[in-house]
Amino acid sequence: MPTLEFLRSEIERTRVQVSRQRKEILQLQRAGIPTSSAEALLQRMLDKIDALCTDRDRMKAQLPKPKGRVLGGRKW
Fold first, then answer.
1. What span, in angstroms and rounded, lies between the C-alpha atoms of 18 and 36?
2. At what angle do helices 4-31 and 36-62 cross, to 10 degrees?
3. Do 52 and 10 meet the contact criterion of CB atoms below 8 Å apart?
4. Going residue by residue through the chain (76 aa), what tens digit of pLDDT does each one get?
5. Residue 9 CB coordination number (10 Å)
6. CB hemisphere CA count around 11 (13 angstroms)
7. In angstroms, rounded to a whole number, what is the distance separating the alpha carbons of residues 27 and 44?
8. SS3 helix, strand, coil % of the chain, rounded to 5?
9. What pTM does this model have?
């Protein structure tokens, strides 16, 4: 089972890859090269991000809620 930190880092890494892929697609479009396969890859990457975010949110909801403290550190 991946940890919450792992999921967060994987989401960030995949988002960077998506950004690069979008730039490459724009370059291909400017050059007049078909981009259907690159767009399919981009969609799979976006789906992966959605799945990772769902897992992250589920794990975050399972974490115990921290007890709030009043100013000065007193417990009421």
1. 15
2. 160
3. yes
4. 789 999 999 999 999 999 999 999 999 999 999 999 999 999 999 999 999 999 999 999 998 887 766 666 665 5
5. 12
6. 16
7. 20
8. 70, 0, 30
9. 0.79
